[in-house]
Structures are given as structure tokens and as C-alpha cells.
Amino acid sequence: MTPEQFDTWARQCLVDVEQALSAWVPSEAPAGLGEAMRYGVLDGGKRLRPLLVLAACEALGGQREAALRAAVAVELIHAYSLIHDDMPCMDNDVLRRGKPTVHVQFGEAQAMLAGDAMQALAFEVLTPDEALVPLALQARLVGLLARAAGQAGMAGGQAIDLAATGRPLLEEQLQDMHRRKTGALLQASVLMGAACGTPDARAWQALSDYGAAIGLAFQVVDDILDVTQASETLGKTAGKDLDANKPTYVSVLGLEHARLRADALHAQAQAALRSSGLADTVALAMLADKVVDRDS
Amino acid sequence: MTPEQFDTWARQCLVDVEQALSAWVPSEAPAGLGEAMRYGVLDGGKRLRPLLVLAACEALGGQREAALRAAVAVELIHAYSLIHDDMPCMDNDVLRRGKPTVHVQFGEAQAMLAGDAMQALAFEVLTPDEALVPLALQARLVGLLARAAGQAGMAGGQAIDLAATGRPLLEEQLQDMHRRKTGALLQASVLMGAACGTPDARAWQALSDYGAAIGLAFQVVDDILDVTQASETLGKTAGKDLDANKPTYVSVLGLEHARLRADALHAQAQAALRSSGLADTVALAMLADKVVDRDS
């Protein structure tokens, strides 16, 4: 793949992911639940995690059906976490992806249930008939996603975030929080894509390092955008971390050092790709660029 | 197994399940999250679902390690659903298993996160190293559990429940709600246990029918107990469905007809076991008795 081909490839991936999400997030779920689930995940978001899954699979020449399911599953986990995170008992946010948040639109109870059902659906999507995805690969993908979503990963990071509001954190504590809260799922996206192929130990380690670096870079950039961009650009409430007195990379390192940190992590990610021994990592390299060089 | 041996068997199962829960629900999860998770699932509950998993596995001579993991996973899903269901935006209940509910004890945000992390943990427990449970069986267990927990099962039933408050339901609608809300997970417990062995099509169908019958019987009896028992006996707030103006089997059928319905479902469950072709279904038969003949 050349850098010029990347855009075409990414556009086609986004079409495939959107179609799969629309097909697999059921409109017929009872009592408005399906409507809330679809509202929470369709037509929005950068789909960075699905693109990482598909790019890693592509780099390994892996199984596309399995990777598409992994891409949808990880996006469902991400989208459910945003729904729960936006609720009044958490961040109490009313704007997401430029639309009213799910609990504003459908009520708190339905928002909580929609999130719960989306987490279950993620694991359902990963366990189709074995004619579609070999059972052993299904189990590996579930294991990677469950560990990234749970107490050692995303949910644990959110608990630290919750406890940290209004308290200063050391840089290592901030990093630990973000490695769990955001980094674990981004890294798992890369590894789930890799698991759809047959990576050797060297490629697996390199992709793990790449995923860890961009996972953290993503959050550093998020913290920078939170103070430098307007709400309209972000599609969500800007400056909210500052308002909530939450520790961020900007509050701990300052804006300039946060930018340097993002650049250093970007360089780490690219170095990991070069060490992978894989022939074509253009898509992964371009995605690393996009993580750091974005305005929303 | 004789009926006399059942009690000894069940006691040992409960010890095993409690030890496994205590070992696998991590006290070291960050920022108090582990504490909330353990509070929500340890030292309480009848553990009916784990016993169903283990009894079905026993009837098939299946793999015990896999069944113990399935037992813990299904209890984690059940416990997380109670935590979320008790929250102010849902049932707003303050008492569960004789203790303050998780959100009363730890706050709403931590309760929501603990539930979210417990759902992820369920799928983590089901996907250990393949030396412990074959990967193909892991994938089958995840598939059964995810479908029972999601929009077609438990979460969907809760959405119907939410929408039904204060509105009369036809008996078929009530049954549909409960087959999803409570029945799906109880039936999945039986089928997960069965999947740990190698059931033929006849045994699988019989156990599926058995699971469906006791799943619905459980809810009918729950509705009866809600109006006939005191809160102290139940360990949760009695009469709350009545107070919340929720449709129940008692409000739709009347108390006497609800009792007859429970007896009929119990008979269906026992008939299914007799048709299974399995040599030893004593434990499953005794559990069906306990579902119907209980006071809390």
C-alpha cells in the first residue's frame, strides 16, 4: 500500500464498518433499546479503533471476516463506554459527536441498558457460527477484548479517573490511568487485528509496542485539544477536564511539553513498526500520523 | 446421585464457586473498583445459576474446570445486572441480599463502573489459557452467555420492564418480558453446563426445555414472594413491584393462578428431564424443586 492508496483503503474500511454496525446492532431490540443502541454507535466517531484492527489485520494478511467482527466489537465497547461516561453520575455531559448524549435523548435508564447491551453485543459479534470465524480465533479475540475492557483496562482507568478529580496526580499516575482508560482498548484493537493473521513473536511484540505508544499519544493529544479547540470542532464539550478540575497532560506537563510528549510517542510508534519485520505497515503508520495530527 | 447426596454435592459446589469468585474478582482492581465488585458479588445470593451450570455439567459428565468458569461467569452477569437494576435511574432500591445496595455503599458512578467491569470479567473468566479450557469450548460458552445477557435476552427484558411500568401487559407480553429478563440467563446456565460435556441433540433439546421452564417458573415464584413475604425474609424490599405499579404474574393472573402456573412449569421441567435420555438428572430435578419451593 502506498500513502496515496491509504485514503481509498480507509474510506472503504469505514463503509464496511458502518454497514456491519448497522446490520449487527439490531433495530428490532425491544422497547426502544435498539433505537438507543443505534443512536449511540451509528453515524459518528472517527472509527479509529476499527481502522487499527483492520490495518493490523492487513499488515499480517489476516482473516478479513474475523477482523471486521473485531472492528465492530471494539467500537461497540468504545461507544458503550462513552454512553456510560456521559451519564449524570459520571461526567454529566450533554453533547457527544455533535448530538445530544444518549441519556439526554432517551433517559438515564435506557442509556445505562443500551450501554450494557452493547457490551454484551460486542462479545456476541465475536462468536458467530464457526463457519465464519474459527472457534479458536473467536476465543482469542474475546480474551483480548474482555481484558482491555475490564478492571485491568478501561473500566479500571475510569475508576482511577473518578477518584482523581480535584486531586493532583504525579505524571506516572496520570500515565497509568490513561494506559488503562484509553490505551488498553487502542492497543487491543491493534492486537485483535494482528490475531486475525499469524504474527511471529517479533511482529506481535512490535505491534504491541506500537499500540501502547499510539494509545498514550491519543490521550495526550486529547488533553491538548480539550484546551485548544472549540466545542464545535470537537463535537463534544471543550474545556470540560479543566472545568472539572481533572488532571490532564496539559495540567501536569504544560502545553508545550505535552506537545513534545505526543511527538515522542509518535516516533516510538513508527520505530516499533520499523522493527516489526512486516512488509507493509503503511496503513498503521498513516494511522499513527492521524492520531497525533488531528484537530478533533 | 441420590436425593440424599444432593445436599452434600450442592454444599461442595457452593464452596467451590465462592472460592473461585473470591480468587477471580480482583481485590487489587484500582481506586476502590475491586472492593465494589467484590461487595456486589461475594457472600450473598442463592447461587442458583452456578448450581444449574454445575448440575448440567454433572449430568453430562462434562469438564469441571470449564463448568466452574461458566458458573462464575454467569453469576458475574447476574450480579452486575442487580447492581445496575438497583440504581436510582432504574429501580432505585437500597436493600439487596440484606445489605445496602452497591450504589448506596460506594456511590452511583462506582456502582455503574463495577457492573461494567463485572460484565467484562465474566468474558475474561471464560477465556483463560487454552491449557485450562479448550479454545473451541471457550468460544461456545462466550456465545451462549453473550446472547443471554444482551438485547435478545436480559438487557432486552429489562428494557421491556422499564417501558411497562404503570401499563397493563397481556399475559403473553409479561411472559416475553420474563423469558428475556430472567429466563434467558437461567436457561443459558443449563446450556453452558451442558456444553461442557458432549450432549446429543435429544439431551440438548431436553435441557433447553428444562431451562426455559424453570427460568419462567423462577419469575412466577418471585412475583408470588414479592407479595407474600416480608423484606427481612427476602433480603430485599418486598412489595416493590406492587408499589411501582409494575405488571407481575400475580397482578395479571391473581395469586392462586400464579401458584398453579408455577406448578405447571415445574412439571414441564421434570418431564423434560425424563425425556433427556440422561442417566443421572437428580441434581437438576432437585434444583427445579428448589426454584418452586422456596421462601426467598
Structural notes for this entry:
- Two copies of one chain form a homodimer.
- By secondary structure, the first copy, chain A, is mainly alpha-helical.
- Chain A has one domain: Farnesyl Diphosphate Synthase, CATH 1.10.600.10.
- Helix content of chain A is 72%, strand content 1%.
- Chain A has 15 helices and two strands.
- Chain A has helices at residues 3-24, 33-41, 48-60, 64-86, 102-106, 108-125, 135-149, 154-164, 171-195, 201-228, 231-234, 240-243, 249-253, 255-274, 282-292, and strands at residues 95-96, 99-100.
- A two-stranded antiparallel ribbon of chain A has the order 1-2.
- In chain A, a hairpin with a 2-residue loop joins strand 1 (95-96) and strand 2 (99-100).
- In chain A, helix 1 crosses helix 4 (64-86), helix 2 (33-41) packs across helix 6 (108-125) and helix 9 crosses helix 10.
- The longest helix of chain A is centred in the C-terminal third of the chain and has 28 residues, at 201-228.
- The mean pLDDT of chain A is 94.
- At the A-B interface, helix 2, helix 4, helix 6, helix 7 and helix 8 of A face helix 2, helix 4, helix 6, helix 7 and helix 8 of B.
Summarize this structure as a short list of keywords or feature phrases:
72% helix; Farnesyl Diphosphate Synthase; 15 helices; homodimer; 296 residues
Topology, please?
The structure is a homodimer of 296-residue chains.
Chain A: H1 3-24, H2 33-41, H3 48-60, H4 64-86, E1 95-96, E2 99-100, H5 102-106, H6 108-125, H7 135-149, H8 154-164, H9 171-195, H10 201-228, H11 231-234, H12 240-243, H13 249-253, H14 255-274, H15 282-292
Helix pairs in contact in A: 1-4, 2-6, 3-4, 3-9, 3-15, 4-6, 4-7, 4-9, 7-9, 8-9, 9-10, 10-14, 14-15
